[in-house]
Design goal:
By secondary structure, this protein is α/β, with parallel strands linked by helices. Among the domains are: 172 residues, Valyl/Leucyl/Isoleucyl-tRNA synthetase, editing domain (Isoleucyl-tRNA Synthetase, domain 2, Alpha-Beta Complex), CATH 3.90.740.10; 162 residues, Isoleucyl-tRNA Synthetase, Domain 1 (Orthogonal Bundle), CATH 1.10.730.10; 81 residues, hypothetical protein PF0899 fold, CATH 3.30.2320; 67 residues, Helix Hairpins, CATH 1.10.287. Helix content is 45%, strand content 18%. A 4-stranded antiparallel sheet has the order 6-5-14-16. Strands 10-11-9-12 form a 4-stranded mixed sheet, covered by helices on one side. The protein has a 4-stranded mixed sheet with strand order 27-26-29-28. The longest helix is centred in the last third of the chain and has 31 residues. The protein is globular, with a radius of gyration of 35 Å. The two termini are 61 Å apart.
Length: 872
């Protein structure tokens, strides 16, 4: 029985149904015992607290394109999914829930609090997984992992203990990013920097036993309570005489040695620097270099402690106000100057971060970084686009030890036990019963947990069962590619490379593809505060997953941010409709007799479309392999819409309706449609599956095979291209001279005998598609004609009797006035300095576009008027 499609497409009718069918039939499950060549990707694990945003949507769409393409190419494919426990974020979620009950985590205690977090995770965590399914992500969901599950926890402990015993993990006082609200250290990635309007406070520090004063500029006067030195540049002539002397700290009267170091910027402020080793990362390094005392003046909540003298008990910002007031009253404050600078905020609660000295756990990173640098230098790992390789090296060559401890409860608790009797730190693969040094049983476990990135760094191999030697690891490690955003190139990607090389003695992946950001249509970063966020789930609901996915892929050019608007998604929804309508037309005309192509009975246009099909499949494949997703999407879009629909289907309608080699026309069309659906499938999984099953009668499109059959009909391809050029030339004339679409016209062609033969052979198609009454051949110029000149022919379209020259000139003159008005309006705006200063950038860009469009239209109208006048 002949299958047909409904008149209108509604993705909601089949997307969920098809996805559930794929899951039931285990199409996405990877078989580690397969003989097929492996292709594997591990998903960048989204936070368990997260919901699908545009970054996730882009990232996972691109991964799915790679995965589905390789599945169709005959690879044994593993796309391994999972979520990250997101220590700080998840703890904050559960703490907010407790606060609504009038409780804090301290009311519950550590054990009960962790139980509540697990309970929340089971009930509400991981909603993003279901959202990824809505997107069509073809992950092996049976292998889903969580960074806190038992297997990964075992891997984390194995790595920690191994590194500790090798001396690569240590505990020390170090300057860290501290959140006074979350009460934890933060990694550099967890600190968001914002440009804020601040101030430079110019403060006099008296020189001991002298009337001289040293003027110092600072943005944080409250930290002067912890000053232990003043630094100047040894090459600074202004201060050479002070090196080795002492300054007196105002208010606290502490003696501060004046040291010399080339680190000091002579151009910033006054060129003299207050050194606060306990509250500034650069000062901390200076302090270590010169053996300076480290005085911490704040507690965990950013409150001034006993080291702050009479300011003890004040919030750091209140202390700032009072210190500045006292300095002013004592005559130590010269001036306050406006100063914009970058201020770090906690990425979760937005509190201003305090650099603060603290006892923390660290990974000695340089020994691990050496091999990771080498792996990229030697090409074992390739980064796409290439420009990010330079950034990777800059980070890796300037790497600092990694602070891995966090002062929260949710996470992998550090497996270290302190002996109450002798102070020895016990670290082992199993929980110790007694101190390995003195034998005491009085042991207390470290309260800190590991940085979330620590467990994520093991993701490519821990998710496959390491430290056990599993078949999954043997088959699928190293993974083939990692798709991720540029913002975690160092914080995650580099650390995975280091850990993979250390514990698997091999790279974790061969390719790293770095995608750009999805911004709004004006190039602004999407944010809730700006109100410019586009919700992926709403877009999928409105337009279907296929249109949404294809839009993202079509704009995913390497190294360029995506400017996304809903209109662009609407545009590709029209493409989905085109696929549907073309498929519906062909399926309505197919019958049970249409099967194999009769290759001995092909028409010229049949060979042309098969030639195009082969070239398109080859080009799309090339672009997918080079991660040029936008080029791949554009290639198949152009082929399907313009070559297959606009030309080939129009070519064969004449044959279908007049029963001229109809069976073979439909056989070629059916084959081309099926193969096109396969090329489209990685980008648009749902509609391609739905149509393919009805069209072919086969179970699924998921395993392809991807089109590989070679069709090379070069001569026929070139001949049909000439026919298309001829038709397009005539259509251009009709458009330029406003000839009514229903009006059949006569044309004259000046050409070679060879081209004449081709035109005569295809005259029926040419006449039908260009609305031509008669095709005449000539060796002369035809007067009062529109002329189109090409390499192989010249076309003359006699216009006398077709159009009223005078009326057409008047119409164009009237149209010209409108564009002249636009040029005047937008030209004035764009030459107005005040307007350019005040108007938003996207409005200015819009005006520029309108101005340029008006200029272009004006040029076209002037040319048309000149042409018409020459024919009068």
């Amino acid at each position: 029985m002949k299958e047909e499609l409904p008149i209108r497409i509604d993705p909601a009718d089949f997307e969920e149904k098809l996805y559930n069918e794929w899951l039931e039939k285990k199409y996405f499950h990877a078989n580690e015992n397969s003989d097929k060549p492996p292709y594997s990707i591990v998903i960048p694990p989204p936070n368990v607290t997260g919901s699908l945003h545009m970054g996730h949507a882009l990232n996972n769409t691109l991964q799915d394109i790679l995965i589905r393409y390789h599945r169709m190419k005959g690879f044994e494919v593993l796309w391994l999914p999972g979520t990250d426990h997101a220590g700080i974020a998840t703890q904050n979620v559960v703490e907010r829930m407790l606060a609504q009950e009038g409780l804090s985590r301290h009311d519950l205690g550590r054990e009960k609090f962790i139980e509540r977090v697990w309970q929340w995770r089971e009930e509400s965590g991981g909603q993003i997984i279901n959202q990824l399914k809505r997107l069509g992500a073809s992950c092996d969901w049976n292998r889903e992992r969580f960074t806190m599950d038992e297997g990964l926890s075992n891997a984390v402990r194995t790595v920690f203990v191994t590194l500790y015993k090798e001396g690569l993990i240590y505990r020390s006082n170090y300057i860290i990013n501290w959140c006074p609200r979350c009460h934890t250290a933060l990694s550099d990635l967890e600190v968001e920097h914002e440009d804020k309007e601040g101030a430079l406070y110019y403060i006099y520090y008296p020189i001991e036993n002298s009337d001289e004063k040293l003027l110092i500029a600072t943005t944080r006067p409250e930290t002067m309570l912890g000053d232990t030195a003043v630094a100047v540049n040894p090459n600074d002539e202004r201060y050479k005489h002070l090196i080795g002397k002492y300054a007196i700290l105002p208010i606290l009267n502490r003696r501060l040695p004046i040291i010399a170091d080339e680190y000091v910027d002579m151009e910033f402020g006054t060129g003299a620097l207050k050194v606060t080793p306990a509250h500034d990362p650069n000062d901390f390094e200076l302090g270590k270099k010169y053996g300076l005392e480290e005085i911490n003046v704040m507690d965990d909540s950013g409150i001034i402690n006993e080291n702050g003298g009479k300011y003890k008990g004040l919030d750091r910002f209140e202390a700032r106000k009072q210190i500045v007031e006292e300095l002013k009253n004592l005559g130590y404050l010269e001036k306050i100057e406006k100063h914009d600078h970058s201020v770090g905020h906690c990425y979760r609660c937005k509190t201003v971060v305090e650099p603060r000295i603290s006892m923390q756990w660290f990974v000695k990173i340089k020994p691990l970084a050496e091999k990771a640098i080498e792996a990229v230098e030697q090409g074992k790992i390739k980064i796409f686009p290439e420009m990010w390789t330079k950034t990777y090296f800059e980070w890796m060559y300037n790497i600092r030890d990694w602070c891995i401890s966090r002062q929260i409860w949710w996470g992998h608790r550090i497996p270290a036990w302190y002996c109450e009797k002798c102070g020895h730190i016990n670290v082992d693969f199993k929980d110790p019963e007694k101190c390995e040094k003195c034998g005491s049983t009085e042991l207390t476990q470290e309260t800190d947990v590991l940085d979330t990135w620590f467990s994520s760094a093991l993701w490519p191999f821990s998710t496959m069962g390491w430290p056990e030697k599993t078949k999954t690891l043997e088959k699928f490690y190293p993974t083939s590619c990692l798709v991720t955003g540029f913002d975690i190139l160092f914080f995650w990607v580099a650390r995975m490379i280091m850990m993979g090389l250390k514990f698997m003695n091999d790279v974790p992946f061969y390719h790293v593809y770095i995608h750009a950001l999805v911004r709004d249509q004006y190039g602004q970063k999407m944010s809730k505060s700006k109100g410019n966020v586009i919700d992926p789930l709403i877009m999928i609901e409105k337009y279907g997953a296929d249109a949404f996915r294809f839009t993202l892929a079509a704009f995913a050019a390497q190294g360029r941010d995506i400017k996304l608007s809903e209109d662009r998604i609407v545009g590709y929804k029209n493409f989905v409709n085109k696929i549907w309508n073309a498929s519906r037309f062909l399926m309505m005309n197919l019958d049970e007799n249409i099967s194999e192509i009769d290759f001995d009975n092909l028409e010229m246009e049949d060979k042309w479309i098969l030639h195009n099909l082969y070239q398109t499949a080859k080009n799309v494949e090339k672009f997918i392999k080079s991660y040029d997703f936008n080029e791949a999407a554009n290639e198949i879009y152009q082929f399907f819409w313009h070559i297959f629909c606009d030309w080939y289907i129009e070519f064969i309608k004449h044959r279908i309706y007049n029963n001229i080699n109809k069976t073979n026309a439909l056989a070629v069309a059916k084959y081309t449609l099926e193969e096109s659906l396969k090329i489209l499938h990685p980008f648009m999984p749902f509609i391609t599956e739905f149509i393919y099953k009805k069209l072919s009668g086969k179970e699924t499109i998921n395993f392809g095979p991807y089109p590989e059959k070679e069709f090379l009909f070069d001569a026929d391809y070139k001949n049909i291209e000439k026919v298309i050029t001829l038709i397009s030339n005539v259509r251009t004339v009709r458009g330029e001279y406003n000839i009514p679409p229903a009006k059949n016209i006569n044309i004259f062609i000046k050409t070679s005998d060879e081209m004449k033969s081709l035109i005569e052979q295809k005259s029926d198609i040419i006449k039908k598609l260009a609305k031509i009454e008669n095709i005449n051949f000539t060796d002369k110029e035809i007067e009062k004609s529109a002329v189109q000149i090409e390499k192989d022919f010249t076309v003359f379209v006699p216009l006398e009797g077709l159009i009223d020259f005078e009326a057409e000139i008047k119409r164009l003159e009237k149209e010209k006035k409108g564009y002249l008005k636009d040029i005047n309006i937008y030209g004035k705006k764009l030459n107005n300095e005040e307007y350019l200063k005040k108007a938003p950038e996207h409005i200015i860009e819009k005006d520029k576009a309108k101005y340029e469009e008006a200029k272009l239209k004006l040029e076209e109208i002037d040319k048309s008027i000149e042409r018409l006048k020459s024919l009068c």
